[in-house]
Give the backbone structure.
Amino acid sequence: MKLRFQKDDIVNGISIVMKAVPSKTTMSILECILIDASSGEIKLTGNDMELGIETRIEGEIIDRGIIALNAKIFSEIVRK
């Protein structure tokens, strides 16, 4: 998967879905943000089994794909 977008767009998208990502859980997949760029639009999803938040961000999809990344680490990398 290869994407290109503005930093402000991804930072805003991450901050929206981080509200649904729990900080501590027994299921490590719930600490992740799902990035879905398989259907022509970039969707970010966070979920804690009770609340799920999905947002779409503008950007260019060079190679399509889906990946789940640790939300805290990904957020820190993007902000720097």
